[in-house]
Amino acid sequence: MRITGRAGMPYKRKGSPYWWVNLKGPNGQRIRQSTGTANKQEAEAIEGRLKAELWQQQTWGKAPEYTFEEVMTEYLKAKKGSKSFHNIQTSIEILRHYFGGVIINTVKKEYVRSAIQRMQRERGYTAASLSTRMSYFKAAIAYCRKELDWNISDPSEGISLPKRGQRVRWLTREEADRLISVANGMKCHDLLSSFIVLALNTGMRKNEMLKLQWRSINFEERIVTLLADENKSGRTRSVPLNDAAIQVLEKRRAFAVEHGLKLRWVFAKEDGERWAYPDPSFRKACRLAGIEDFRVHDLRHTCASWMVSHGVPLADVKEVLGHFSVTMTERYAHLAPHRAMQAVSVLS
Predict the structure, then answer these.
(1) For residue 322, what are the contacts with CB-CB under 8 A and spacing of at least 6?
(2) Which of 79, 141, 156, 288 has the fewest Cβ atoms surrounding its Cβ within 10 A?
C-alpha cells in the first residue's frame, strides 16, 4: 500500500502557528499531527521522514524510532507556560546526560537501571530526587503515546527506585561558619555567601530564593511575601526576616545599585540576569570546607534544626517553613529532647 498525504503537502490549521501533515498509513489509518515548526521547508522534511518511517513499518514491519530528545522536546512544548515548566526543563536537562541519543523504543531495562544508579552515585541524589527526575521521564513518554499516538513503551516500567526516606542532614554552627567563610573566598562570593546566609536564617527553599524579587520584600515590616505561584505549597505565605537576613538583603540591594541593575531579582548576576544554578559552586564550597553529604536543600533542614534545638515550638517552625501540616515538621522533633523532659517534670 502506498503512503499518501494531503494534496499540497503540509498545511496550516486555524489557530495553530505550525504546519500540519495528514498522512494515510499502511493500514489505512489517517495520521494528522503538527510538525511543531512554522517553517514550511522544515515541515516538508518532517513529512518526508514520517512517510519513510511509515513505509518501513509497512514493508519491513519496522516501528518508527524515537530518540530521547524527540520525546522530551514534544513534552516540553506541551508543558510550556505551566507553573512547573522550569523544574521540568531542568530535570530533563539532567536526564539528557544519561539518556541523550538513546532510542526510547529499543533501549533495554538494564540500561535504564544502570543510568539511574549512575545518576544517584554521581549526583548524590536522594530517593525523592530520583523519583522526581524519573517521573518526568515517564510523563513525557506517556504524553507522546497518548497525545501523539507514538508506538513507544516506557523502558523504566517495572524498575524499582530506591525507597524514600526522611533524610535530615544539618550543620553545626561551626560548620556553617566554615562554609560561609569558604564561600566568601570564591569567585561567586557575592552570590553564594549571601544565598547560604539567607537560607540558614529563613528556611526558604532554593527556588523561592533564586526567584525572589525585590517587590516581595518589605524592609519596614521585615517580611518576605511569597505569592501562591512563587512557592511549592501553592499558597501565599509570609517569611519573617531576622537581623542576619536583613543584612544580607541590604548587601544584595547595594550590589544591584553599584552595578546599575534594575531592582528585580534579589540574586542577580553582574549582567542583571537571574542566578539560576548555585549547585556546582555550592558543592565546591562544601568540598573545600570539608563538609560531606550536604546539599543545598539541607540548608533548610539546618534552619529548622536550629530553631527546634533552641526550643521553638514545632507549630511555629511549621509556619516559618510553610509546611502543609505539622506532621512534615515532626521529622525534627528528636532534636528537642527538652520538650519531653518538661512534659515528665510535671509528674514529680
Answers:
(1) 226, 231, 232, 233, 237, 239
(2) 288
